[in-house]
């Protein structure tokens, strides 16, 4: 990139410079900028935490060896922080969606019985122990009314805790259930 020593404009590409002077000047190949422009020596961006800060390019610094690219680390704005959070949440949702395994209730029940000895009665007993009436009813409707069981549903995750099933157990059970 180039710096216009007369106007202070920066950064300028060779195309920018040619466009500024197309009416009164021709340029050699390879490109050579007129005297009013200085090639800026690129510098690495400083280290920073991209979750909270960003590097902003400043006007180049004139040194005895020429012009040197300059950077400043500044905090992200509220809008930029909100955008990063939205992107993080969207990426997490994509990952959850990609990891979700859906099986039939029949497959789930057979896998639970085959691998852990857990029967439908055990699941319904766990549901009946949910202290909150609204959550208990929702879990019961979700379990009894669903033809498909999703590995990341709130009901499955709550039942897993009650049945002392780990995340690894769930992965194994749903993998087995898919194969049935």
Outline the structure in words.
With 180 residues, this protein is α+β, with helices and mostly antiparallel strands. The chain is built from 7 helices and 6 strands, in the order E-H-E-E-E-H-E-H-H-H-E-H-H. The protein has helices spanning 14-21, 78-99, 105-116, 120-128, 133-145, 154-162, 167-179, and strands at residues 2-4, 37-41, 53-63, 66-75, 102-104, 148-150. The protein has a 4-stranded mixed sheet, with no helix packed on it. It has a two-stranded antiparallel sheet with strand order 5-6. A hairpin with a 2-residue loop joins strand 3 and strand 4 (66-75). Helix 3 packs across helix 7 (167-179). The longest helix has 22 residues, at 78-99. The two termini are 62 Å apart. The model has no long low-confidence stretch (mean pLDDT 93).
């Amino acid at each position: 990139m180039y710096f216009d020593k007369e106007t202070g404009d920066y950064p300028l590409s060779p195309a920018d410079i040619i466009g500024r002077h197309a009416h009164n000047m021709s340029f050699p190949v390879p490109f050579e900028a007129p005297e009013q422009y200085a090639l800026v020596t690129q510098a690495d961006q400083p280290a920073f935490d991209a979750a909270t800060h960003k590097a902003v390019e400043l006007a180049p610094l004139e040194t005895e060896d020429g012009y040197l690219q300059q950077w400043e680390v500044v905090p992200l704005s509220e809008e930029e922080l909100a955008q990063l959070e939205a992107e993080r949440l969207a990426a997490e949702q994509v990952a959850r969606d990609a990891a979700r395994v859906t099986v039939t209730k029949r497959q789930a029940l057979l896998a639970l019985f085959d691998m852990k000895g857990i029967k439908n009665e055990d699941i319904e007993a766990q549901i009946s122990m949910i202290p909150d009436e609204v959550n208990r009813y929702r879990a019961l409707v979700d379990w009894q009314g669903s033809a498909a069981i999703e590995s990341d549903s709130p009901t499955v995750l709550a039942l897993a805790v009650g049945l002392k099933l780990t995340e690894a157990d769930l992965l194994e059970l749903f993998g087995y259930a898919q194969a049935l």
